[in-house]
């Protein structure tokens, strides 16, 4: 957490999402979806950070496979983040829209 900016961002985003969930009084099912989405992104980001550390350890010099490993790990985070965004839009979108009078 102290060294990884991405993890610090996830910590702030998690607090915001939990605050929104409390404010909008999510149902039990919606909380389950939000918990899964938040946990998915956290775990993928932690695995990505671990893979980056291992790659830097074993291949500090340039190597195509080192680059591929980092890119694929970053891609996994991106896929999880898009899924979490979809959950966020489906759960919070209509509520925020109603709040803003859309
Ligand atoms: N040892 C290496 N050999 C080849 N390509 C590398 C190597 N290290 C990094 N790269 C390439 O540079 C990109 C950025 O690498 P970097 O280590 O900064 O990862 P990052 O995902 O940007 O890290 P962070 O999450 O800390 O910002 C990688 O996605 C990869 O394409």
Automatic annotation (TrEMBL):
Q: Which Gene3D superfamilies match?
A: 1.10.287.3610
- In this protein, the active site sits at 45
What cofactors does this protein use? Mg(2+)
Q: Which membrane topology term applies here?
A: Multi-pass membrane protein
State where ATP binds: 4, 52, 61-63, 70-71
Q: Where does a divalent metal cation bind?
A: 4, 52
Q: Which GO terms describe its cellular component?
A: plasma membrane
Q: Cellular location of this protein?
A: Cell membrane
The residues that cross the membrane are 7-25, 31-51, 72-92
Classify the source by domain of life. Bacteria
Please tell me where substrate binds in this chain: 45
**Is the Magnesium keyword given for this protein?**
yes
Q: Does the keyword Lipid metabolism apply?
A: yes
InterPro entries reported for this sequence: DAGK (IPR000829), DAGK_sf (IPR036945), UDPK (IPR033717)
PANTHER family associated with the record: DIACYLGLYCEROL KINASE (PTHR34299)
Q: What family does the Swiss-Prot or TrEMBL record give for this protein?
A: Belongs to the bacterial diacylglycerol kinase family.
Q: What is this protein called?
A: Diacylglycerol kinase family protein
